[in-house]
Each structure stands twice: as C-alpha cells, then as structure tokens.
Amino acid sequence: LLGEGVNNTVWSHNLFNGLVERFKTYFSGGKMAFPDELDLSAATPFQRKVWEITRLIPYGKTKSYTWVAEQIKKPEAARAVGQALARNPLPIIIPCHRVLTIDGRLGGFSGGVEIKRHLLRLEASASIR
C-alpha cells in the first residue's frame, strides 16, 4: 500500500490507529475518509500541492491530470502532475488512482494500471449502492 519514497516521517504517531479497519472498509466497498495527519515535508512544494489537490477528489469520482494542474495554477503542467503522482508515497490515502488523462484513459499508476482499474471499479460500484 505504500508508494515510492515513503519514509517513517510520513506518518504521525496516531495515524495507524484504526487504519487497518479503514482499509478493510475501503476494500469491502465502503466509503472512507482517511486521516489528514500526513507529514509530507519530504515532498517538493510542487508535489505537496498536487497531492493536496488530489486528496480533494471525492470517492467514486475522477478528474484529469489537466484539472489537477489547473487547480494548482499551473495549467501547462499536466505531465509534471503525472510525475508527482507517480511519486505519491501513499496511494489510496492520496487517491492518485482517481486522476485520468484528459480523454478518460487510465494513464499510469505506481501499482500498475490493472490495480488502478480495480480501485476505480470498486469505488464506482460502492457509489451506486
């Protein structure tokens, strides 16, 4: 569940409280909000902005790399957004799987495109229940 570049400073001491139960709920199709107590100080300012905007994408919804770039006031930076998301240390908690290409294709995902597809299907089916 941890992405590239995760280190011990990413997690606050209390973050693990209930995290296993939250993931169980998530993977059984339940809507979940994950904790906000993330220490992203090891990230670049650009990565932090991208990851913070990505966390705002609601469960069961998707946005494009271009949309994320526009939200951080860098409309020309869709590719750089993709690179920042590829370095996301906390996939699912920072839901980079919800970011697609402008034409709706999956794009990439650190866990592989099939995992991205599975997560999107899981969230879509939970959203219509």
Automatic annotation (TrEMBL):
Gene Ontology MF annotations: methylated-DNA-[protein]-cysteine S-methyltransferase activity
EC number: 2.1.1.63
UniProt cross-references to InterPro entries, sorted A to Z: MethylDNA_cys_MeTrfase_AS (IPR001497), MethylDNA_cys_MeTrfase_DNA-bd (IPR014048), MethylDNA_cys_MeTrfase_DNAb (IPR036217), WH-like_DNA-bd_sf (IPR036388)
Keyword tags: DNA damage, DNA repair, Methyltransferase, Transferase
Enzyme class at the top of the EC tree: transferase
Keyword set includes Translocase: no
Gene3D superfamilies: Winged helix-like DNA-binding domain superfamily/Winged helix DNA-binding domain
Pfam family name, one: DNA_binding_1
Domain Methylated-DNA-[protein]-cysteine S-methyltransferase DNA binding: 45-124
Keyword presence, Ion transport: no
GO biological process: DNA repair; methylation
Transmembrane domains' residue ranges: none
Catalyses which reaction(s): a 4-O-methyl-thymidine in DNA + L-cysteinyl-[protein] = a thymidine in DNA + S-methyl-L-cysteinyl-[protein]; a 6-O-methyl-2'-deoxyguanosine in DNA + L-cysteinyl-[protein] = S-methyl-L-cysteinyl-[protein] + a 2'-deoxyguanosine in DNA
Matches recorded under SUPFAM superfamilies: Methylated DNA-protein cysteine methyltransferase, C-terminal domain
Family classification: Belongs to the MGMT family.
Protein name: methylated-DNA--[protein]-cysteine S-methyltransferase
Upper classification of the organism: unclassified sequences, metagenomes, ecological metagenomes
